[in-house]
Amino acid sequence: MPSLYQAIILDHSKHPRNCGELAHANHHGEAKNPTCGDSLSMDVITENGLIADIRFTGQGCAISQASASLLTESVKDKPIETVLTLTPDDILALLGVELSPNRLKCALLSLETLKLALTKNDKNLS
């Protein structure tokens, strides 16, 4: 793993951005990685078709926590339609590293959780 990307991953895992619960969220999703026990929850506020705010909670390895932190930073103020088209390659680009198949599942947990939150039939959708 290149040292720059390793430093970014370590920083985001030790000091995650957008970590915590979000009061008045109109979307919520939860997902787990049964392979390693990582778990994430995401709260999202959408307004006018955009991600107005987003927070996550959970526990897991450095990759899963860094991925959630980087993803939440990257999707704020983005159109929901655009966010729903994100792919595993987009997550890998955020992380900047190649991962083994097991670590890939850790990295993609954040994307799975976010897409679950945005596609659930929650009240007050906007």
Summarize the structure.
The chain has about 130 residues and is an alpha+beta fold. Helix content is about 45%, strand content about 20%. It has helices at about 5-15, 60-75, 80-85, 90-95, 100-120, and strands at about 25-35, 40-45, 50-60.
How would you summarize the topology of this molecule?
Blueprint: H1 3-14, E1 27-33, E2 38-47, E3 50-59, H2 62-75, H3 80-83, H4 88-95, H5 101-119
Helix pairs in contact: 1-2, 2-5, 4-5
Can you give a write-up of this model?
With 126 residues, this protein is of the alpha+beta class. It has five helices and three strands; from the N terminus they run αβββαααα. The chain has a three-stranded antiparallel beta sheet with strand order 1-2-3, with helices on one face. The mean pLDDT is 90.
Task: List the main descriptive attributes of the protein structure presented here.
126 residues, 45% helix, 3 strands, 5 helices, Sufe protein. Chain: A, alpha+beta, three-stranded antiparallel sheet
Query: What gap, in angstroms, lies between the N and C termini?
Result: 40 Å
Outline the low-pLDDT stretches. none
Largest sheet, order of strands side by side? Answer: 1-2-3
Order of helices and strands: HEEEHHHH
Number of separate helices: 5
Indicate the percent of residues in helices. 40-55%
The major β-sheet equals: 3 strands, antiparallel
Task: State the secondary-structure class.
Answer: alpha+beta
